[in-house]
Amino acid sequence: MQRLRLLFDNFTIILITVVLAATIFPAKGSGVAFFDNLTTAAIALLFFMHGAKLSRSAIVSGIMHWRLHILVFAFTFIMFPIIGWAFGPVLIPLLGKPLFIGMLFLCALPGTVQSAIAFTSIAKGNIAAAVCSASASSIIGIVLTPVLLKIFLGADDAGGTASTIDAIINISAQLLLPFVVGHLMRPIIGHWVDRNRSWLVYIDQSSILLVVYTAFSASVVGGLWDTVPPMTLVMLTIVCCILLAIVIYITMHASRVLGFSKEDEITIVFCGSKKSMATGVPMAKVLFTGSAIGPALLPLIIFHQIQLMVCAVMAQHYARRTDTDVKTTA
User: Fold this and answer.
1) pLDDT tier for residue 169 given thresholds of 50, 70 and 90
2) What is the phi/psi pair of residue 170, to 5°?
3) What whole-number distance in Å separates Cα of residue 330 and Cα of residue 328?
């Protein structure tokens, strides 16, 4: 029961419930405008708090490890999109074009911040480097993700997406600006934020749930579940599992071949193999229009849960292995 609890946390259960709620009771009429406005405000608050949480000392302590950061960024913004694009001839007939675009969107996203740092900490990796790498990835992705999506989709296949320049401007206004303001206000509110981290996480989760409900409501009204039958969902889940397995294998072995320490390997694996729902869900709201949002988010939602389950097990394995190595060395 405890192991099952590790794999399926409360947020995952609530997330599934929200998707079901949007399927049965989608927002319609005046409710659409209400939830759109509420979601925009929640996203701004989410990234404001992200900026306020990030300390200057964490940036300074981790930023010098440039080889690790370059490798993580290469996995996140080069290897991931290339893998997704390369499997296009297989994924398009298997999943359909809308879900393939969702897979490309997933592959172009930045890495996670909170969970990457949390798993690195559990596994006894390089936490300072993880904080710096994950945070920088999130910020860089605000500009780079729309560009990558447009490059790999091409002009002819980018139906349902906003133009690159407009997307970057909108994402910067909705995500980057609140982040910068929050970080600039850290000297004023930083101590309060650090003291209340335990419950401030609910701001992150509530914002994600709001966007998921709004996005899936629009897609359900547009006929999402008519175009995504159960067998396609099964195939999408299998594809996400294969994608994560490939990336974890590459990140793990590349870090060993390049001579990184075990602590750095842990950081590279957890920062380079994960994709951010906290950033991806708000981005989808800006990048995609109408009913295209649901298929764009579906791969991310499935991949997010798989990566949490797998990384939870891996973190425990790394922690036990590290403890053994320490005892052997002593």
Assistant:
1) confident
2) -65, -45
3) 5
How far apart are the C-alpha atoms of 82 and 31, rounded to whole Å?
Answer: 39
At 6 the pLDDT is 47
Q: CB–CB of 273/110 below 8 Å?
A: no
Three-state DSSP class for 185? coil
CB 278 within 8 A of CB 46: yes
DSSP annotation of 77 reads I
- With contact defined as beta carbons under 8 Å apart, do 125 and 264 qualify? yes
Q: Which of 34, 284, 13, 290 is nearest to 175 (CA)?
A: 284
| Confidence band, pLDDT 50/70/90 cuts, at residue 246 | very high
- Give the predicted TM-score (pTM) of the model: 0.75
Spatial contact of 233 and 299, defined as CB atoms under 8 Å apart: no
Is residue 269 within 8 Å of 71, Cβ to Cβ?
A: no
SS3 28: coil
Band of pLDDT at residue 232, cut at 50, 70 and 90: very high
CATH, range 2-322: 1.20.1530.20
The predicted-structure confidence for 184-221, as pLDDT tens digits, reads as follows: 898 888 888 888 877 777 776 777 778 778 877 877 77
| Ramachandran area for residue 223 (φ above 0: left; ψ -120 to 50: alpha; else beta) | left
- Domain boundaries defined on the chain: 2-322
Query: Residue 109 — φ and ψ, nearest 5°?
Result: -75, 155
| Residue in 100, 98, 114, 109 with CA at minimum distance from that of residue 46 | 114
Cross-strand pairs, 320? none
pLDDT at 239 over 90: yes
Angle at 219 between CA 218 and CA 220, to 5 degrees: 95
Assess contact for 77 and 147: CB atoms under 8 A: no
Put residue 266 in one of left, alpha, beta given phi > 0 → left and psi -120 to 50 → alpha: alpha
